[in-house]
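P.,

For your records, the input lines for the assembly:
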Amino acid sequence: MPDRRTLSRWGFMVAGMLGAIAIIYGAKFVAPQAHGAPQPTWIVTFTLASALAAAWAMVFATLAFRRLDEFQRAASKFAWYWGGTLGLVVSLPAYVFVYLGGLHWLDPAHFHLGAELAFAFRLGYGIAVVSLLLGFLVALGVWRITRQ
Amino acid sequence: MKNRLKVLRAERDWSQAELAARLDVSRQSVNALETGKYDPSLPLAFKIARLFGQPIEAIFLDGDQG
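Structure tokens returned:
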């Protein structure tokens, strides 16, 4: 039987995930998706909902992290740093392969990478990687400032 | 870093879970500490020392002492 600390951590994790999913799905009722061209109302509503969902998940992730003891926190930091770094390293050749049309080369019938899709793919990868690096730099800055 | 946690715990006939509860850490943490796979922070080392009523250096041995 897990101890109370572990149970409350799991509770926060489940609440964080379910709450974030509920917020995203709830946005569907506020701004139903229309067929055809993307509607500004739909775009704004879902962007705000995703920001709210991310904030919700972040709050509960923080609460769950605080329930970890120092050994578990060390494990989490190790996994995030080295796992994240390894994932980032692996993503670069994968990105180049897809961007240059590697999927089309492997399966021409299902994958087409025109100029628009290539731009969207580059933008998506860029947002993820730049956000990750900025987050790392901000966290590093905060850590140093608060310890000087 | 080597330590005498397992011996001290055995002297008191405590299980790993019992020691973990007294230190407010997980049982996995106690196991990692006992096997020397994880070195505790200073606050946790002091807490352990207080719990066993011994100075830190009587529980944790640095490499040269090992």
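Two observations worth noting. The mean pLDDT of chain A is 92. The CA atoms of residues 65 and 73 of chain A lie 7 Å apart.

Regards
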